[in-house]
Amino acid sequence: MSIYGRSRVKVPASTANLGPGFDTLGMALSLYAWIEMEEAAETVFHLYGDEMTGVPRDKSNLLYKVAQMVFAEAGVTVPELSISMYSEIPLARGLGSSASAIIGALAAANAMIGSPLGSAKLFDMATAIEKHPDNVGASLFGGIITAVWDGEHADYIRIEPPQELEVLVVIPEFELETVKARGVLPAEVSVSDAVHNISRTSLLTAALAAGRLDLIGAAMQDRLHQPYRAPLVPGMEKLLAEAPGHGALGIALSGAGPTVLCMVDRRELRKQELELFLTETMRENGISARTLWLSPCTTGVTAELLERNGMQNGSFLDMIKGELQS
Q1: pTM recorded for the entire structure
Q2: 298 φψ region: left (φ > 0), alpha (ψ -120 to 50), beta (else)
Q3: I want to staple 147 with a disulfide (CB 3.0 to 4.6 A). Which of 156, 157, 187, 248 is the partner?
Q4: In the predicted model, what is the mean pLDDT of residues 145-161?
C-alpha cells in the first residue's frame, strides 16, 4: 500500500513580456487548470476539456515527466501514477499553457510526497524546463512577476496588481508554437532598440508597482520581438497602433502569441467598443477570434492533500464544474 497521498492543484494561466519585458515580466490570469495526482498500480491519464485534445496519455506526457523530476530531486520512487487534468487554458496561444502544466505537475507531485521541496526550488526547476522565468513565475506565485535567470537559479520580485487593472484578451483560432515565434527573432539588436526596451520595462515595472495606470500605454512599447512577430498574427500591427484609441491602457502580444492582450482600467466606459475593435480587426484579416475579460490572478498555484480513496473522476469533475459555475 502506498505511503503517499492524493494531491489536487489549481494553477492559473499567465501572460508574458507585457510588451517590452521580454522573458522578464509575467502576470497570472484568471484562467485555470486543475490536476489530481496519486500513486497507482499502472500509469493512467484522465484528461478532460477541449484543450486536452491530442495530449499524450502515456509516460511521454509532460505532467508525468515533470512529476518524476520532483521525485528524483526528493529521493523517492513513484514510477506509476494516476493523473487527472482539466484545463480551460488554450494550447499554443501565448497564455502559458505549458508553464501552467509544468507548475501544476511540480506542485502536485511535491504535495503528494509531503512537500519536501520549497517554492524557490520549484521555481528553479520550472525555469530550467521552460527556459525563461516569466510564465512559470506568474503561475507559481500569482500577481505580476519580474524575474531573472542565470541558467541555474531564478530571482524574482512579485508585484501586487493594481486593483483597477483588468485584462481583455483576443484569442485567434489558430495555434502558434513558441519555437516558431522565437525563430523569427533577430540574433542581434541595436543599442538604441535595447535602450528603448530597457527604459520601458523599467517604467512599466515601476508603474505597475505604483498603480500608475496612466503610464502603462507609454511603457508597453516594444522593439525587440513584436515587430518581428507581427507578420505571424494578421492584423496585429493595426491592433497595437489603434487599441489605445478605443479604450485600452496598453496592448501587447501575449507571450509568443497569437493572443493579443489589452490592459484596461475597470472604470473604462468603452469596453464594448474595444472588444468590437479587436474582433473586427481580426475578422478583416480573415481570422476568427474570441475575446475574454480576465482579471490578474493574485494567488498563484494552490495545492492540497486529499484522502487516498482511489481516483474518483466523478468527484474531480464535479469539483471543477462547481468552481466554474461559482
Answers
A1: 0.93
A2: alpha
A3: 156
A4: 96
